[in-house]
Design a protein that fits this description.
The chain has helices at about 10-60, 70-90, 95-120, 125-150. The protein is mainly alpha-helical. The chain has one domain. Helix 1 runs antiparallel to helix 3 and helix 1 (about 10-60) packs parallel to helix 4 (about 125-150).
Amino acid sequence: MDKIPDNPKAACENYINELETLYYPWYDTAARWHYFMWCVLQAVATLSGFAAAILAALIKKEQFEDLDWGRISLIILPFVGSLASALLVQLRFRAFLGLRERGRQAFQNLIEQGMAKFAAASSPGTYAQIHTWLVEQAAAIEREQSRGFFEIAPAPTEKKEITP
């Protein structure tokens, strides 16, 4: 663990660095991951539907009689598309993408404001005020993210034991 700074300027500078190296990258990674998953599932759902439609148009009547690749594909492709669509709806990747992107933007803005205030400060008292302000703002962003997460995430269901 790093040594705790013994002056307000160093403490404030360390906290700005912490926001920049810990908080911001977490939100950036989370936003990119949710965007990637949303894109992949959206593409799979769409392409499997198109592929099934094109395949159904091209398959000959005789190929429906036996269990060959065409018939199996017409079963698997809609299944895969439906699964991808269900995952998009149930796991709410787009909603989480928006939530984490707002968190990323908020921390980026907070870091930039903190750097500007830090550069303009000249007294230990001002550095201490900036540090306190940064901590309060970061806590507010985290509370908003937590509230947003629990609005999006489904609530766990209670298991009730049935007694005979």
